[in-house]
Amino acid sequence: MHDVFKPHHWFERACFLFENGQLRELEMLCREILSQDKQAADAYYLLGLALQSTAPHEALQALKRALTLNPQQADYHRQLGHSYRRLDQWQEALLHYQKAVELEPQILSHWLNLIRGLRITRQNERANQIVAQALQIHHDPSLLEIALDLAVLSSNWEQASRLLTQNPELQARPRCLISQGYCQIHSGQFAEAQVSFETALKHLPETWEAWNGLADTALCRFDWEKALHCFEKAFRLRHGPAWNQASASSKPAPLPPKISPTKLAHDHAQLLYLQTQGLLPAQARPLLEAFQNTAKMGAENRKLLEVLNPCWDAPIYINTPQLKSPYLNPNHDYEALEFEFLKSSGWINWDSFLTEAALEALRKCCLESTFWRDYYAEEGYLGAFMDDGFANRLLFGIAQELTEAMPKIFKNLPLRYLWAFKYHSESKGIRLHADQAQINLNFWLTPDSANLDPTGGGLLFYDKKPPENWGFQAYNDQSSQGLIEYWLKESQAQEQKIAHRQNRAVLFQSKFFHRSDPLNFKPGYENQRINVTMLFGS
Question: Repeats (TPR): which ranges (predicted)?
Answer without folding.
Answer: 74-107
